[in-house]
Amino acid sequence: MLRLPLAAAAVFALAIVSLFVGVSDVSIASLVSGGEDGRAMMVLLISRIPRTLAIVLAGMGLAIAGMIMQMLARNRFVEPSTAGTTESAGLGLLVVLVFFPDMPLIGKMIVAAVFALAGTALFLRILREIPLRSVLLVPLVGIMLGGIISSITTFFAYRFELLQSLGSWTTGDFSSVLSGRYELLWIAAALTGAAWLAADRFTVAGMGEDFTTNLGLNYRRVMTLGLGIVSLVSATVVVTVGSIPFLGLIVPNVVSMLMGDNMRRAIPWIALLGAGFVLVCDIVGRLIRYPYEIPIGTVVGVVGSAIFLYLLLRREARYG
């Protein structure tokens, strides 16, 4: 328990660093002096603080969502971007852009969440029809399903001349986060708390339907709760900042290797590591080509795919 406050302090330190990284001159000296008509304080309040909060909330939410999916699917290589969930949310956004372009942001999130829920349920349904569920087959099925959904979305976006608009919505990027445009992510924070309260139920559900029923729990209700949390978190993040791949895969796996599979004990660590990982990637994306910025989706995609391959090879070496 002594290590958890240290991890929280490390994430807090990264958040402080994130506040002072960027093209605009925001430093302690400029904040104290109040030069240029208070421009530094205005940038801090309108842009830097909302952006840092969005990074922390998105990192925590997606990491927890990945852990829930892995428990429900009983596979360590499943998360929203490898199960068709994120792609389904993107399809929902396209439907909104075509038929209801003036819908408020909360409406876009609800529609995207419904599509994400349908896509995740379809993925789990397909898994139930596969007689031999190998460790590597499950994420392969999810990636193929996501590719099909993404192809459908791209086709119709091209037909309706919405490729650029859709890309701006689905590409993971925190540079456009301002005060008043990130608050939906607090929903992801609330859902993270709900996941912690239901951690024991998700752990039992991960043992299978028969085991869950024998312990007196309603397996379908637990599955519905888990899928609802995953879908809402994924939709909220996609609508607010776009897609961040592999985050929900690598963070729970790293925590599991260090601490085991006790979900209630692991949730605080997963939340902190998810937030810290996204903070580091965002800072790197802002510094590597300074003063230009690399989108967070690209940085996390590169780092996450390398870690994903390492985990696959490690698991193959262990069971091969």
Count of structural domains: 1
Indicate the CATH architecture: Orthogonal Bundle
Please count the helical segments.
14
What fraction of the residues are assigned to beta strands by DSSP? under 5%
Tell me the overall shape: globular
Structural overview:
This protein has helices spanning 3-19, 28-33, 35-73, 85-99, 105-128, 137-159, 163-170, 185-197, 199-205, 209-214, 219-241, 247-259, 263-287, 296-319. 76% of the residues lie in helices and 0% in strands. Helix 3 (35-73) packs parallel to helix 8. It has one domain: ABC transporter involved in vitamin B12 uptake, BtuC (Orthogonal Bundle), CATH 1.10.3470. The longest helix has 39 residues, at 35-73. The protein has 320 residues and is an all-alpha fold.
List the helices and strands and how they pair.
Layout: H1 3-19, H2 28-33, H3 35-73, H4 85-99, H5 105-128, H6 137-159, H7 163-170, H8 185-197, H9 199-205, H10 209-214, H11 219-241, H12 247-259, H13 263-287, H14 296-319
Helix pairs in contact: 1-13, 3-8, 3-11, 3-12, 3-13, 4-5, 4-6, 4-7, 4-11, 5-11, 8-11, 8-13, 12-13, 12-14
